[in-house]
Design a protein that fits this description.
CATH topology: Methylamine Dehydrogenase, Chain H
Largest sheet: 5 strands, mixed
Strand order of the largest sheet: 1-25-24-23-22
Strand content: over 45%
Distance between the termini: 40 Å
CATH class: Mainly Beta
Helix content: under 10%
Structural class: mainly beta
Number of helices: 1
CATH superfamily: YVTN repeat-like/Quinoprotein amine dehydrogenase
Number of strands: 29
Radius of gyration: 19 Å
Length: about 325
Amino acid sequence: MGKNENSLSIDSFEQINTTTGVLPTDEQNTLSSLTTSELLGFEGGNIGAGGLVCSGKDGCIYYRSESDGWKLYKAKPDGSGKTKLSNRVQGYINVLEGWVYFCDFTDDFSIYKVRTDGTDETKLVDGYCNNLYVTESGMYFDMRDRNNSPQIYYADLDGKNMKMLMPDASLMYYYKGKIYMGTGQLGVYDIKTGNEKVLVETYVHNVSVDDSGIYYWAADKGEFHRLDLDGGNDKVIIRSGDYFNYCGGNLYYEGISENKNGPCHTINSLNIATDKIVILLEEANESVGYVYVAGEYLYMRASLRESILVNGKLDCIARLDGGVTIWD
């Protein structure tokens, strides 16, 4: 049975393990020969949440700056060393092997890459692209055609050898040689074998996949679910809530709770294995959004009154570290 978020125990903030368990390989994968694990340029459900924050192997955080017109920046986790990498307005940020990949909103959502030091900015794919997942085997994304219908594509990391994988579908996730697709329903397509399977026949969003299963928000039902990787054992994890991002055993979301001041919105982390909820932000009654996982750190795009005092702007990126730190 599923459970209502208000029936779960709520504890004070504690350190959350966001490790995904994905192991890097030493050899470059190709589309025709995928190994069981590969380097990924994204974490958890960050891309499904717009991909505004991403961690790099160099210890830096790559992000869309709220304080400088949505330009591409990097900084250390504590917010020091802020460096502009590009003037392009981006989303779906991936960081892999010294490169930052993103879609540029000001150039019809075309795909670009730039080195992590801000040099060699290059246009890779020209077109209305979304839902960009970058791995060492290549780039997976959807692109709108002339009829404004999304088609799922693969391309090499240099933008070459572009190939349509699935017509008339939106890319929801990529994991271990399989693409998860849909909106009106959730399906999976095995790139190597060509096998296709419908997993869920309902409107889905906020899909994330790891070795423990497939996680998704059944938007029309107001429920967050987990499936086995073969599509069996569909289970409701939580009912109600919004802005879901599953990563590494934890589900981050906006919920509703109550304290001495009455009902309030909260930003929560639910440990899937223990059913334990940690409140990351209490009385989140201002405009808040997704939590982004960046290694061991958590960030959130929000509109907070405190940001006006710190940055002179309402919109900000906040770091969740036992409290709320206006980070950008």
